[in-house]
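User: For a reading group we're discussing how well predicted structures match intuition. Take DUF4295 domain-containing protein. Before you show the prediction, I'll give you the sequence so everyone sees exactly what went in.
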Amino acid sequence: MAKKAVASLQTGSKRLTKAIKMVKSPKTGAYMFVESVMAPEFVNDFLNKK
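Assistant: Thanks. Here is the predicted 3D structure of DUF4295 domain-containing protein, as structure tokens, for the group to look at:
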């Protein structure tokens, strides 16, 4: 099961998106959240990357 959240942020003239994905740690097996703020066109690449 994967959690995927995307929120749009607008700062001045730039349009940014904050993407959050849940990844499983290979060392401990526990799940953790990875957050990143990026341009909207890079969100799918971020979420599909392992």
